[in-house]
Predict the structure.
Amino acid sequence: MSIGTSWEKIERWLDQYAPQEHPLPGPCTRSDLESLSRALGVRLPKDVEQSLLRHDGSGLTDVIPSMYALYSVEQIADEHLGTLEYKLKNDHYGWGDSLLIVPIGALGEMQLVVDTQTGRLGSWDIEETGYCWFEGPGWASLSTVLEVIGNALASPPPCIAVMGDGDEWRAIDMDIDFPGTLVWADVRG
């Protein structure tokens, strides 16, 4: 499935169940992506670029379970530089590998990262000294994640996204704390 098709399914669910005050951002430009590549010193995987060309981040919408919001082009550049500076300042082992690993989203202080060489997704927490790579086929790449989410949101309720081995999330539109938004609840909890 294409990035565009996955985003269409996500957009339809948001329009129907979570019409919030803060809609998804519009697209970035190809010029924005070229500037980002120069700033990063590396090119993002094609699926990440295609997603940014559809939506320059996800704004306040937590598109990816558990509750990751996607960064805009500007946020990616800022966060990547900030991560590198932090690791250099604190002498983290392996910080040089960070040149190829780029943050593309966040859940609080935890960053959703992509390995620019493989497209694999994982996380990096400022409190940790290394990366945690997500397990299971649902986390193979951003296009895979968006496909799983899009298919889940296009299915009849309850909309369940199976992200990894036994890692299931249910889409909620009537959350007490965040009414009218997309929220993911752990099916086990």
